[in-house]
Design goal:
Length: 514
């Protein structure tokens, strides 16, 4: 982002400004202006006109380029928001008398969208305190489907290579140094990035080979996500530079995770992250997550400093401080749950992952994934012989252990949400914690038998949960569950879930374990 900012000739600026003023009067619209566009809001439609500007990171100075990029913006955004984006409209006439219909050469182009009401942006809802966790769950599901269907970067493409990924982050640090960031902070970040780049190089290469570099969104923050008619989606993809959207899918979601962290909502950040992981199964991306969080924070910090230098407002999160914290913090630890069906393990684990900012691996979800099923699929009708035999259970626990090891190596706090009714299952994960040199905790969830039965029956009637345990399964679990041994008691936190659970106290106990 270094370089000298230049602008188009003054007559072009003046003519385009006259055009926007004329259209505002014609449409009875109000105008929202950014550094690269005008958006006219007429109560029904939003008309987006690109400014004829040339900046270090984009060039809108030519009319033909603006027209082409309007079409590209339409194509890209219809992938996620087809009902929001309408068309590209050529503007005819003159700047003082523009026409949206008619013949003759176009003097400008407008991207037409449906206008949405104030307060629909997730950034607005977060500020108002009305953003619901369920909205982030639905956005995670939508983004998983979007990434799964997005075009994949070819092996000969320049996108997502270790050199490209490392270079982008290091250039952001250099830009911060040029715009007055403290030399000590820049040096600390530069050192961390260089060390991490060497360590992550094979991971980035594996991600490219696995098809995880795709044509994504590129600018996925809270102000580019919207709630409309109960549906949540993203809009305003980056259209002007392919390198900014042909990225690892983890770079895409890391932007939204970082944005929530920057606004002090780590609980919602990890709610969204875990929802994405549950839906996508892309736990192999966890080793690169911290890198992309730091990168996204660095870019936002640089943009804020550039805008401040241009007279813009300086209010907002301290993204540089966030980048430094993310690059230096680490508190990997492992917690496994223990309890029969209906004991409240998953309920507690969901709240624990949000408050402790942890990665949760749920056996009910991962077991189905191993058989090619989604979380709410009814396995009995889809898999001959079922998915709950001894071999399938051993395979599930082995998979959970493998993924937990990846997450712990990435410096994450990890919750493995499974029954763990066998002593050897629990001991295997205790040994994993020892091998990773992280604290090990066993969360023992209990409830009276009658309440267990009520919960299992109610869950089955709702059919809204990955668990398929019924009363027969519960009775079997109660019959053969192996109680906690004496040597396990030193690592146990017991939660009686028939009473209200004090989640903050529970988090403090877990994070205080050594």
């Amino acid at each position: 982002m270094a370089g000298v900012t230049t602008g188009p000739p003054d007559p072009v600026c003046k003519a385009t400004a006259e055009l926007v003023a004329s259209m505002r009067r014609q449409l009875g619209a109000r105008v929202v202006e950014t550094h690269v566009s005008w958006v006219l809001l007429d109560g029904t439609f939003a008309w987006k006109i690109k400014k004829p500007v040339k900046l270090p990171f984009l060039d809108f100075s030519e009319l033909a380029t603006r027209g082409r990029l309007c079409l590209e913006e339409l194509r890209l955004n219809r992938r996620l928001a087809p009902d929001l984006y309408v068309d590209v409209v050529p503007i005819h006439g003159t700047p003082t008398a523009p026409r949206l219909h008619g013949d003759g050469p176009a003097i400008e182009y407008a991207l037409r969208m449906h206008e949405f009401p104030p307060g629909a942006l997730l950034s607005e809802q977060l500020a108002a305190g009305t953003l619901q966790p369920e909205h982030l769950d639905r956005l995670a599901q939508r983004l998983t489907a979007f990434h799964a269907g997005a075009d994949v970067a070819g092996p000969d493409s320049p996108f997502g290579t270790p050199e490209a990924v490392a270079g982008d982050s290091l250039r952001a640090v250099e830009g911060l140094a040029l715009h007055g960031a403290a030399a000590a902070d820049c040096e600390a970040l530069r050192t961390w990035l260089q060390a991490q780049a060497a360590r992550l190089r094979p991971v980035w290469q594996d991600r490219r080979r696995a098809g995880r570099v795709r044509e994504g969104h590129g600018d996925l923050h809270l102000a580019n996500a919207v709630l409309l008619a109960g549906e949540v989606t993203a809009f305003d993809c980056l259209e002007f530079d392919p390198a900014l959207r042909w990225i690892d899918v983890f770079s895409d979601i890391a932007f939204l995770v970082m944005d929530l962290l920057a606004h002090g909502r780590g609980d919602l950040a990890f709610r969204f992250l875990n929802a994405y992981l549950d839906e996508s199964g892309d736990h192999a991306g966890l080793p690169v997550l911290r890198w992309y969080l730091v990168y996204r924070a660095l870019v936002r910090a640089l943009v804020a400093r550039i805008r401040s230098g241009q007279g813009g407002a300086q209010a907002g999160p301290d993204h540089l401080a966030l980048a430094l914290r993310l690059a230096t913090e680490g508190d990997a630890r492992l917690l496994i749950t223990h309890g029969v069906s209906g004991s409240g393990k998953s309920w507690v684990a969901q709240r624990l992952l949000q408050q402790a900012q942890a990665i949760r691996l749920r056996s009910d979800v991962e077991r189905k994934r191993l058989f090619g099923l989604r979380a709410l699929d009814a396995s009995a009708s889809l898999v001959p012989g079922g998915i709950y035999g001894k071999d399938a259970t051993q395979r599930t626990y082995a998979h959970l252990r493998e993924v937990a090891a990846v997450a712990l190596a990435a410096g994450q706090r990890v919750i493995v949400d499974a029954a763990f009714l066998r002593h050897d299952e629990r001991d295997d994960f205790r040994r994993l914690a020892q091998a990773c040199r992280v604290p090990f905790t066993l969360l023992h969830c209990t409830a009276p038998h009658e309440l267990l039965r009520q919960r299992v029956q109610a869950r089955g009637a709702r059919a809204d949960d990955a668990s398929e345990a019924d009363l027969a399964v519960l009775d079997m679990q109660l019959a053969w569950a192996e109680p906690l041994a004496a040597e396990e008691q030193c690592a146990v936190i017991t939660v009686e879930t028939e009473a209200p659970v004090e989640v903050e106290a529970l988090v403090a106990r877990w994070l205080g374990a050594r």
